[in-house]
Amino acid sequence: MNPVTSRVFGHLPTGEAVRAWTLSNARGASLEVIEYGGIVTRLLMPDRHGKLADVVLGFASLPPYLDGHPYFGAIAGRVAGRITGAEFSLAGQRYPLARNDPPNHLHGGKIGFDKRLWHAAPLSRADGAASVRLTLHSPDGDEGYPGAIDATVDFTLTARDEFIFETEVRANRVTPANLTHHSYFNLAGEASGSMETQTLQLHADTYAPSDEFMTLLGRRESVAGQGNDFRNARKIGDALPEIFKQHGDVYFINRPADQKHALVPAARAHDAESGRILIVSSTEDCIQFYSGAGLDGSLRGKSGAPYRRYQGFCLECEGYPDGANRPDLGDIMVRPDRPRRETTIYAFSTDSV
After folding, report:
1. Any idea which architecture 4-197+288-350 has in CATH?
2. What digits encode the pLDDT tens for the residues 212-243?
3. 279, CA 20 to 30 Å: which among 22, 146, 173, 252?
4. What region does 64 belong to: left with phi over 0, alpha with psi -120 to 50, or beta?
5. Global confidence as pTM
């Protein structure tokens, strides 16, 4: 078995080919990522009986991705999440950005990293795990951001069914950068309907409150006594009526003072029917939980079924999205002498019931 293979997934309107790269392991698990947007289009994981299912939402061909979608499986950037007021200041200069989620700037703008053609190549690892590296150059002024950056994202599937997402951003001047992976997970399978019976635990004592437009309010609040408290595992469906706009929040991952940039637990999800467990660990400061509340049935997924509300949830590990304005809540600036490197691991396993 070749652990890394590629094929043509489709073509852009310019005629450029978009390749899909498939990573496989001996257990039968596999991950497919395409060069357009660094989108994970398929992630096959076994249930407690060894039966494989695709646990991420997405499409079977390129055109639906080009037509527009809610960031299914994509690399979000230059800055993932919402920048308040679609602007920031740096060294006394104001940088206005696209208000593509009024009144804020979302996931890098109108043509963010999710809509770019990345360059991909197989990556050799000492542990022999299947891996591919995606690279992208973003020039000075791209979507209003200062400075040119070079982004590298490594996708790896290990023998233990771990999906590792590693990023590095280098810049020629000080500029914000904050990449994340944006898969919509459904541990029962992408065509199985609502994920509301699945449980979620977040290792976060505090979160970043927002207003009616999802604008971050620039402060931390405790989750204690609030409806968005996931410190103990709870069914997502039970929590939804208590979550602001049934959307989900940015949480600050619990991190001991002596583990400032270490991998620490961020989240755990479980589907009782299939037995699948997803454990997320990250070096990032924050995790955005999104419930899939915006799915309305207008998009049909790779199995032909419409994706309706709450059919997939996101666990986006990232820096504090508005860190360019509030570095006290999370510094996301990249400096020429200090690349930004982050790792998130999505580890899959099953229960023994």
Report:
1. Distorted Sandwich (2.70)
2. 999 999 999 999 999 999 999 999 999 999 99
3. 22
4. alpha
5. 0.97
- Residue 298, amino acid: S
pLDDT reported for residue 272: 97
How many angstroms separate the CA atoms of 116 and 137, rounded?
Answer: 10
pLDDT-derived band at 261, boundaries 50, 70, 90:
confident
Contacts of 260 (CB under 8 A, 6+ apart): none
DSSP state of 78: S
DSSP 74: P
- Interatomic CA distance for residues 43 and 41, integer angstroms: 7
Give the span between the Cα atoms of 303 and 57, in whole angstroms.
10
Token representation of residue 236? 């997502």
30: tokens are 């596999």
Task: Give the residue numbers marked as catalytic.
Answer: 182, 316
3-state secondary structure of 54: strand
DSSP single-letter state for residue 188: T
Distance CA(159)–CA(129), nearest Å, equals 7
**224 and 253 in contact (C-beta within 8 Å)?**
no
Structure confidence at residue 353 (pLDDT)? 63
Taking the C-alpha atoms of residue 32 and residue 350, their distance in angstroms, rounded to an integer, is 21
Which SS3 state, helix, strand or coil, does residue 67 take? helix
- The DSSP bridge partners found for residue 79 are 178
